[in-house]
Amino acid sequence: MKGCGRKSPTLQSRGGVSLTFYYFFARIYWDYIVQSYGDGAMKGNLTDTVVVGIDEAGLGPILGPLVVSAACFSVPADKIGSNTWQLLSDSVSSSKKHLAGRLLICDSKKAYTPSTGIAYLEKTVLSCLGILGKTPASITELIDALCPACKNRLAQYPWHKDLSHRDIKFNHDDIAISAGAFGRNLEKHNMSLIALKSFCFDVAFYNDMIGKVNNKSTVLFMAVCSLVDEIIKSAQHTNFHFIIDRQGGRTKYTRQLRTMFPDMELKVLDENDNISSYELSTEYLAAGFTGGSESRPLQTSAKPFGGVGSGSGIKNIKIDFIVKADATFLPACLASMVSKYLREQLMGCINSYFVEKCQNLKPTAGYWTDGKRFINDLKTIAPQIQYDPNQLIRCR
Fold first, then answer.
1. Contact assessment for residue 143 and residue 149, using Cβ atoms and an 8 Å cutoff
2. Looking at residue 233, what is its pLDDT?
3. Which of 7, 55, 303, 309 can bridge 286 by disulfide, Cβ–Cβ 3.0-4.6 Å?
């Protein structure tokens, strides 16, 4: 397949990642970050810690996008380490049982099933976007709210050309009530939801990146670090805690973190079978921190979280890679649900496009076995449908 399995010539390597790929990703990331701040400053007490959950949806499938998302909360010092579900039990629950109108925030694999569909995901994600003043009525508006940088790439796909006409149908009153309850519950504990952000890898973009680095775990890690970088650069807060769902059996991230954040001080706190924990620190200016030589092109004049400040100081960042974080920590669970919801909406567009052209085709979730079935069905049941395999099928 186009772009897959071939590495571009490299200048040299930094931490196992070629500089060619590093600069390629930096250029893409610059486009991403420039388009990500059109909606003004994000609120939150600047003395609070920004607690961020990061998780993905769609790492395993052969069809459809990979989405990585971040859910950011401003949390006061006296609430750090508290059981968030207990604090917010008036408005959210991690179980479908006895919800009684509350929002479900849990691992997306529990929130979404083929029988219940996206209903739980949709209510939670739209309610949280409502807290942020965003009410997407179409998939285009959803993308604008979460990942505006991917919109131009998606427009190149025949099944994503009319996203503005694909409405998101929901009960506005229900969403407003849920958003209001969650927002008031957060405010009661001096907490706030300050951002939801996604990084969406459409298939051709994903294949292009795999062709340059030849490792999907590295691609995922660099996307995670881009979200981390965006949040640190833009927030006026000085304390950050990132909780990231750990993928695979890796326990050591020191080399990878030094590669992505070369000018930060890095301290290893713990590396074991359940958690890999690190502390980073960096000097910053009010409008964002100053990175190393490779990071400097990524500086932006975008509006920072919390409004414009002045002066300089030190930003302290804790990063935890935790096994099953998406089942244990509320911010990571919310990030998981955001990723899954955006992926499912885009998969729905793919299925609608092909099924409208041949009603004998059975929709697919895109995972390996069923995705292979769908590809074979396109060949045997609907050979008349022309499509670019590099836009539909992942190389790995």
1. no
2. 85
3. 309
User: Domain for residue 368, yes or no?
Assistant: no
Of 291, 220, 304, 240, nearest in space to 36 by CA: 304
The answer to whether position 362 is within a domain reads: no
The answer to whether residue 119 sits within a structural domain is: yes
Provide the pLDDT confidence category of residue 43 given band limits of 50, 70 and 90.
low
CATH of the domain at 191: 3.30.420.10
Q: Are 207 and 1 in contact (CB under 8 A)?
A: yes
Using the predicted structure, report yes or no on whether residue 42 has a pLDDT greater than 70.
no
Count up the domains in the chain and report the number: 1
Average pLDDT over residues 287-311: 36
Task: Report phi then psi at 211, rounded to 5.
Answer: -60, -25
Q: Is the pLDDT of residue 247 over 60?
A: yes
pLDDT over 80 at 302, yes or no: no
Enumerate residues 6+ apart whose C-beta is below 8 A from 256: 15, 16, 17, 221, 225
Q: Is residue 380 part of a domain?
A: no
pLDDT tens digit sequence for 281-296: 988 654 433 333 333 3
Count of CB atoms situated within 10 Å of the CB of 166: 16
Range of the domain at 226: 13-349
pTM, two decimals, is 0.86
How many residues are there in the chain? 396
What distance in Å separates the CA atoms of residue 167 and residue 163, rounded to the nearest whole number?
Answer: 8
Who has greater pLDDT, 28 or 350?
A: 350
**Closest by Cα among 122, 213, 124, 205 to 170:** 122
